[in-house]
Design goal:
- The complex is a heterodimer of chains A (367) and B (311).
- With 367 residues, chain A is α/β, with parallel strands linked by helices.
- In chain A, 42% of the residues lie in helices and 16% in strands.
- Chain B is globular and about 55 Å long.
- The model of chain B has no long low-confidence stretch (mean pLDDT 87).
- The chains are: A alpha/beta (367), B mainly alpha (311).
- At the A-B interface, helix 1, strand 5, helix 6, helix 7 and helix 8 of A face helix 1, strand 2, helix 5 and helix 8 of B.
């Protein structure tokens, strides 16, 4: 269940593609025993996500992939937990998602692991930075969780923000918070909002004359922001959990499939994570089926067995090798920092990997 | 200090101009019909999408007709005006489908209000089916030739905001002059004052009502196009938020009052701009608290007149 409508549809488009590619890959792996995939629109709000989870659970889903937003996960995941249905989140990065319950897991690494890398890169590029402004969406679980991590990373480096501007998820006109922030002459602006608002925010920030570095959070980790912020996107720094340059067989396969649909474009992190989420469920089901673990058991027992199998497995995904902690948190090997490079026309661009910022994963996050 | 004050005033005026435009749209219909057209927010969205398409924009991969676009692209000013005119026509369609049948049956105003809300939701959903749910950005060349921002007395404002403010001001002045000076404008005011007497004086009140819907839709369309070029179109629901804010401005200024809609829009914009940056997330709460306070002190709004029940 992913966001096919609403603002989060910018992520949902990539997720739909990632899941579709994973399904094609899985059919090549096991043509006799395909998973039956049902795609449900989770919208971009909590109510639609809850309705979608209820519908899929009542229809007998063995496992759920989704929802798209952390804000939705906090509302919908408890339902899956109560009903005993395994959930694999492809893009929820807020603190506390796997802690909702033992049926909840994610392949999207928590912000606390990834976000500080882009701050480190910005400071490496300009060690003289003294004044940092922070902007975040105060009514969004992901944004509020991520900004705390950004702010902690800044404070740890002796750079407490000179201003923290709070906006709202539905805002699109940022003249007021931007001019308030720019009056304090920041040298670095750190942004945690969702994609549409983020694209607009960056554009307006640049239009209002800000020329310093911009670090953005995971919400902008989709090429779908390019048409919104256009040439103004150029140069923003972002930490990523996926690199198109990772040279492994599964990533090459993923890239090959991706190129078949979107020629000339490197895959996005969101699509890669959605692929990984489907792959995890598929491989766990395959292992169970090989052992006869799903034969003659009730749906509830099958869901319980699948969750145990899912958490116990090792997966070689386009994200790299991953596995899970016992409570469903992903453990991933490497993370990256990229810089957006826009094409001259300003309508398309790419996340250009900054090699020397590649960093090994931190230990599993604190609980 | 003066710079900060000027910045605040400019920020407030830029947002307030659009609110005033939407509120004027509500005012025109309310003054003639005595009901609020809840479809106005959806017409605002429609205006934005029409401007985008008329500029040569294509429908995204998730839309009903992926990749489709007009075979030509108009310059932004022309696209904006044409989109406003087409939105005005769509508003006439809303009047014909959602208002006229109930008016002919002398239905309760509440029922008309609900049908307008329904018409708005249908329109937004049609937009979503056709255009998809994702955001659309106007090409960066839409305002080619203009600098990204201008500095006025030390305060910095995006050029598109200046344009937005100028167009809103021009639209408001033109509408006010038309209402005050032209024969048809005065006829519309007469119908708003007393439809029965106006009819006895030979004014075609049905035609005036249609004119009110046409202008109201055109104003909403103009607002949608301007917002689209300023902040892009984040989705088909973009107009709903502006519609709600315009509604608040309508009440704040005084139901049916044209100067009230303008004053209310600017006051609402300024109230938002005055919220300190660190508390900007509470902007809407403060703006609506001001609305609440004004209504406590002046239940008829800033410039509204007390309605006298005729017996």
């Amino acid at each position: 269940m992913i966001a096919l409508t609403g603002n989060a549809n910018l992520y949902g488009q990539d997720q739909r593609l990632g899941i579709d590619l994973a399904r094609r890959w899985s059919l090549s792996q096991s043509p006799q025993r395909p998973l039956r995939l049902q795609l449900e629109d989770g919208g971009s709000d909590e109510a639609t996500a809850i309705a979608g989870f209820n519908l899929l659970i009542n229809q007998g889903a063995l496992a759920l992939i989704g929802p798209t937003l952390s804000q939705q996960a906090f509302a919908a995941d408890p339902i899956a937990q109560r009903r005993g249905v395994p959930v694999v989140a492809p893009s929820n990065t807020a603190k506390g998602i796997p802690q909702i319950g033992h049926f909840i897991s994610r392949v999207s690494a928590q912000s606390s692991v990834i976000a500080p890398l882009s701050i480190a890169e910005a400071l490496r590029r300009d060690p003289a930075i003294q004044r940092v402004a922070v902007i975040y969406a105060q009514d969004d679980a992901y944004s509020t969780a991520e900004t705390l991590i950004f702010q902690k990373a800044l404070t740890t480096r002796g750079l407490p923000p000179v201003t923290v501007q709070r906006v709202q998820l539905a805002d699109n006109d940022f003249q007021i918070p931007i001019t308030a922030a720019l009056q304090l002459q920041p040298q670095l602006v750190v942004i945690s909002v969702q994609a549409v608002a983020g694209g607009n925010l960056i554009r307006q920030l640049r239009e209002l004359g800000y020329r310093g570095q911009i670090v953005v959070g995971n919400g902008l980790n989709t090429p779908n922001i390019y048409p919104i912020c256009q040439r103004w996107c150029d140069g923003i720094l972002i930490a990523q959990a996926y690199s198109p340059e990772l040279d492994t067989p599964i990533n090459r396969t993923f890239q090959h499939l991706y190129q078949g649909v979107r020629p000339g474009q490197p895959p996005s992190q969101i699509a890669a994570q959605a692929f990984a989420a489907y792959q995890v469920v598929f491989e766990a089901v395959q292992r169970l089926q090989r052992r006869g673990g799903l034969a003659g058991v009730s749906l509830g027992e099958a869901r319980e067995s699948l969750m145990a199998e899912l958490l116990g497995g090792q997966y070689d995904t386009p994200l790299g090798p991953i596995h899970f902690t016992p409570d469903g948190e992903v453990v991933q090997g490497r993370f990256y920092v990229a810089q957006v490079r826009m094409d001259p026309g300003g309508r398309s661009g790419r996340f250009a990997l900054i090699r020397n910022a590649t960093a090994p994963a931190a230990s599993p996050p604190d609980r | 200090m003066i710079e900060t004050l000027l910045q605040t005033l400019l920020n407030g005026a830029a947002s307030g101009g659009v609110y005033a435009l939407v509120a004027l749209g509500y005012t025109l219909v309310f003054s003639v019909l005595g009901v609020i057209n809840f479809a106005l927010g959806a017409l605002f969205s429609l205006g934005g999408y029409l401007t985008y398409l008329l500029m040569g924009g294509a429908i995204s991969a998730n839309g009903g007709l992926p990749g489709w676009g007009l075979p030509f692209g108009l310059p932004f000013p022309l696209a904006l005006l044409l989109a406003a005119a087409l939105t005005g026509l769509a508003s006439l369609g809303v009047e014909r489908l959602a208002f006229t049948p109930l008016r002919r049956r002398n239905a309760e105003p509440l029922l008309v209000l609900i049908t307008s809300l329904g018409a708005g939701l249908v329109l937004v959903n049609l937009l979503q089916m056709l255009m998809g749910a994702e955001g659309y950005a106007f090409p960066a060349t839409a305002l080619a030739g203009l600098p990204d921002a201008v500095v006025l007395g030390g305060a910095r404002i995006r050029s598109v905001q200046v344009l937005l403010l100028a167009v809103c001001a021009a639209a408001v002045i033109a509408l006010t002059l038309w209402l005050e000076r032209s024969r048809s404008g005065r006829a519309l005011k007469a119908v708003a004052e007393d439809a029965t007497t106006a009819r006895l004086l030979g004014i075609n009140s049905d035609a005036m009502l249609r004119l009110a819907f046409l202008l109201s839709g055109a104003l909403a369309g103009l607002g949608g196009g301007l917002i689209g070029v300023s902040i892009s179109l984040p989705g088909p629901y973009v107009g709903i938020g502006y519609g709600l804010k315009g509604l608040a401005v309508l009440v704040l200024g005084g139901l049916g009052s044209v100067p009230g809609a303008i004053a209310g829009g600017l006051l609402m914009g300024l109230a938002e701009a005055l919220v300190p940056g660190e508390a900007s997330g509470w902007r809407d709460a403060l703006a609506f608290a001001i609305l609440f306070a004004v209504l406590l002190l002046r239940p008829t709004g800033l410039l509204g007149r007390r309605l006298v029940e005729k017996v």
